[in-house]
Specification:
This protein has one domain. Helices cover 73% and strands 0% of the residues.
Length: 187
């Protein structure tokens, strides 16, 4: 039995564990668990909450980025193994990755869109905090985008490997988009 069957879904345990860890982390930072605040002016209180929330979010993004690196590393191992293995079951692995990609989209895409929206609305943030808010929003956008791109790109790389390996049979093969359009328009 080949190494990629060490999990029930046909993916290497390394990649499944990394994807599970990433899904479990989720896009949302943990809620603030603070003791009672001393009474102080509202603006100072709001600044303090903002700074604490930003710190928690950065810690959460650190964890997500570490888990994303694990997924990227496991995906690289999978692609390397697939390119060397003759018995690799591309269809099963691509199907599992597509399912995982959809799950991650459901989890991270709404937060990605929210981060982009917040990034556009930074004019309401006090000027002394705007740069920090911008950097945080940009980091969120990059982290969530990278997570989604990694799984999508891994799936696409495996489909490209499969296409290189499989014989085209009697199906037409196109080397560029113009040939494909010409073929489709002729039908």
């Amino acid at each position: 039995m080949a190494w990629w069957y060490d999990s029930p879904m046909g993916l290497p345990a390394e990649l499944l564990d990394a994807l599970d860890s990433l899904s479990a982390e989720g896009p949302t930072a943990p809620a603030e668990t603070s003791a009672k605040e001393e009474p102080r002016p509202a603006l100072d209180f709001a600044r303090g909450r903002f700074l604490r929330a930003t710190k928690r979010l950065h810690e959460h993004l650190d964890a997500l980025e570490a888990k994303s690196r694990s997924v990227t590393e496991a995906a690289s191992h999978l692609i390397a193994a697939a390119s060397l293995s003759e018995g690799f079951d591309f269809d099963a692995v691509v199907d599992v990755l597509e399912t995982r990609e959809e799950d991650l989209k459901e989890t991270f895409l709404p937060e990605l869109l929210q981060a982009k929206k917040r990034r556009k609305e930074l004019t309401s943030v006090p000027p002394e905090l705007r740069a920090m808010a911008k950097e945080t929003a940009d980091r969120q956008i990059k982290t969530y985008s990278d997570i989604l791109k990694t799984v999508r790109d891994t799936r696409w790389q495996l489909m490209a490997l499969r296409a290189k390996r499989e014989s085209a049979g009697d199906a037409p093969v196109f080397s560029n988009a113009a040939d494909l359009l010409q073929y489709l328009n002729a039908k």
